[in-house]
Amino acid sequence: MSRQPLRARVANSRLARAAAMPQRIRAVARANMSQVSASARWLAQSHEHTNFTYDLSALNLEHLAWWVAAVTNRDVAAARRALEELQEDVRLADHVREATQRSKRAGLYDQEARFGRRLGWYALVRLTRPRLVIETGTDKGLGSLAIARAIQRNGQGRLVTIDINPDAGQLLDGFDGPWELRIGDALQILRDVNEPVDMFIHDSFHSREHEASELRAIENRLAEGSITLSDNSHVTDVLPRWAEARHKRFLFFAEKPRDHWYPGGGIGAAW
């Protein structure tokens, strides 16, 4: 009997799973070793313990460019240029390093400017030129810094970023840009907004209930043609359901970090 018919017979028998086990073990081992290697490098080199920062893979950057182009209805070449603009911003990278060194939590921050999916925030702001961007969940301020830099380059607009932690926004310290940090309860601050909001970014407490509450609090302030983003859309379906109920479009970008153990988050956009 030839080998090929025997293989075919085994593949269609109860022995198939056991016969394929060595190959299955090799596949799992390769994947796990890659993860272990990335984890070991991170543990040895990084200072971070939350809100991890990293670069995106080259292919993922191309996916992000097409995502930005779809959300903004712009040419993908313009989206690529916007992404490259932030990646090549030496002045902002220097600011991140210097602000990190001055920070009261310098021992828990990495000094490199690695924006990950926040590159997409920057590109959206550059291409749509919003007059007012509101972000909830400032944390150390890396995403806020990307937004403020985009607005600065646009020559118009401003950012209001909100956090309940009085120590938030340390990377914004010393950055002379069009931003305002408000400390307090995000829901109350959103209810007090009395001007049109062109872009809203939910990046605060990541629960279904809180995300939905923020959307309810801000929706009557959203301007015509506004964009709403959620940094929680890889976990919940709150934003797509909200978008569908209001006859908006929804699109999700799945983040793929380069050489990092964290599998990545993503950006949900409704417009």
Percent range for β-strand residues:
15-25%
Name the poorly predicted regions.
none
Helix content: 40-55%
State the major sheet: 7 strands, mixed
User: How many structural domains can be distinguished in the coordinates?
Assistant: 2
CATH architecture of the largest domain: 3-Layer(aba) Sandwich
CATH topology of the largest domain: Rossmann fold
Tell me the overall shape.
globular
Helices and strands: which structural class?
alpha/beta
Tell me the Rg in angstroms.
Answer: 22 Å
* Gap between N and C termini: 63 Å
Question: Total number of helical segments?
Answer: 11
CATH superfamily of the largest domain: Vaccinia Virus protein VP39
The count of strands amounts to 7
Overall pLDDT: 93
Level-1 CATH class name of the largest domain: Alpha Beta
Order of helices and strands: HHHHHHHEHEEHEHEHEE
What's the arrangement of strands in the largest beta sheet? 3-2-1-4-5-7-6
